[in-house]
Sequence to fold (680 residues):
Amino acid sequence: MADKAEAVRRGIPTLEEVATRAGVSRATVSRVVNGHPTVRPEAVESVNRAIDELGYVPNRAARSLASNRTQAIALVVPETAARIFADPFFASVVQGVATTLNDSDYTLTMLIGSESNAAKTRRYLLGGNVDGAIVISHHTGDHSYKDLGQVLPVVFGGRPLVDSPGAVVVDVDNVDGASRAVTHLIGRGCRHIAAISGPQDMRPGVDRRLGWQEALLMAGLTPGPEVVGDFSTESGLAAARRLLELDPTVDGLFAANDQMAMGALQALREAGLHVPDDVAVVGYDDSFFSSTIEPPLTTMRQPMIAMGSELATTLVALIEGRPVDPLTLLRAKLVVRASA
Amino acid sequence: MADKAEAVRRGIPTLEEVATRAGVSRATVSRVVNGHPTVRPEAVESVNRAIDELGYVPNRAARSLASNRTQAIALVVPETAARIFADPFFASVVQGVATTLNDSDYTLTMLIGSESNAAKTRRYLLGGNVDGAIVISHHTGDHSYKDLGQVLPVVFGGRPLVDSPGAVVVDVDNVDGASRAVTHLIGRGCRHIAAISGPQDMRPGVDRRLGWQEALLMAGLTPGPEVVGDFSTESGLAAARRLLELDPTVDGLFAANDQMAMGALQALREAGLHVPDDVAVVGYDDSFFSSTIEPPLTTMRQPMIAMGSELATTLVALIEGRPVDPLTLLRAKLVVRASA
DNA sequence: TTGTAAGCGTTATCAT
DNA sequence: ATGATAACGCTTACAA
Fold:
């Protein structure tokens, strides 16, 4: 057990020492530290001076033990996501969360949730180590921490395929994004707009497909042919070839992500078609390679840092009992480059 | 103040409840939980059963308060780094740290250290909130947390320009990496090997330059011309043009990073030179664009995840009083693509 | 407005 | 090998 001598040596005075120096009781110091309103100004003053002089820093563990709050927030990232950390998606979300929380009184604890330690993670979360959690689920529909929301304030980043009842979610609006991407194609004169959709068992796959249809509908155009891919470059290549067979008059192509768009670009090149003059192509995600491929890809950029920020502020509100929107939708941004 | 009823409702039994159920004292339960050897097997057995049945999870705050250890580690990332989080460098290091720590008993707290909250960060670190810290300094020589090492176990990721005395550091070996990159050029027949160096006020700039010279020296070749760039694509473009003026016989080019290599590629194209036949080019960092540009770039890949891992294990060793190397150097990996 | 004092759930010292 | 019991540093009724 550490004795007071050590604390002193390490320069960490206790609240009691502050109290003594300020000539008040520990309770009063505590009140000042926590911004309690009912303290005489002079007392506040004297306590603050003592705090400064002593370099007092509240002991988090003691505070947490006494108040049953931890002032800590967990960020749970599925392992599959961490592995593909190259994916700027997560990096940016984490950045948004971290910077936002940095300006608050909460601390960020990172958890990598893998199959092997799922139980450990749950125990950690339920073991009173944090006041709340942010769970980021990738594009997949995985929401294995769904039920956590009943017990602990939780905000999810990204929606599962089917909305879960009481969950608080922050997500990007894929329907709107896709719709605006396709509207851009329409705006530049495309009339036969095909789609390479993503897997229909993933929310973004479904939603982006919906957006494509919606934009077409609103413009009074009949949808061009559609092929479903798996978000890989190869599937985009194959899909585009098929699309050209199905309808050689296609003059616009919406790919549900940039990987597939990149594959499609290759197929169009093979077919001797010029992008964007013969076929305009727009992708989705603004992947790292999108600006460097030939031609540079027009695409939708997702506001990942903003999403992290929003996740953080929403969770803090939830923890502190303020009302929160059960669903916050963020708008993607159209990035116009050479392909459309 | 939370009462016991709430704890029960939330399903978080205390050590005392476990003790009661197991028919032993709290002290014994504590011993079992902490793997203390001097407990009768039967007691261990009965305590463990009680723990299972009750779903007991130790309260971190209480444990920390009593033991004066937090089992938490801070990861301090400079804000400048966070901002350019697109940089997979940090993402990977964080991943390495997080996954490694996930298998330990330590928790990872992320701190974004900005100018504005430097004091706050220091207070946090010194306020007994963590048992140790990992400080990642980017390629810059910034080591503003240098002195922290005196007070708290700290491991630095990346070395400053001038080595700091007692610091524990994990870094990549830029001299070795550059040397091997250049050796690859020599191996494929290059004899007039020029360099586009990085800023000489940054450690990697200096070290990679050293590696270039070293490899040449060992092969008995005289160094080709050298121009110093600033790690940007534009500077690489300008530098390569200049290089070609200085010595038109150059047949190999070592660029201290991929950005500059990419610029150089453009200059060579302009000059009507073929890569790699006329001039072989090797870069450094294996940046995200390196595999997609034309021609795909041969480069050195830095082991960032491994670095994160190493940082974590080193810090844990340091905290637990085991001996640690003051300097761990990680080897970069040569990635051979079309440019050399 | 302020102080007193009872916890918060552990660990660790000291007997036994 | 085990059990009392005193910390650990703070919050928060409750009293004054």
Notes: The longest helix of chain A spans residues 203-219.
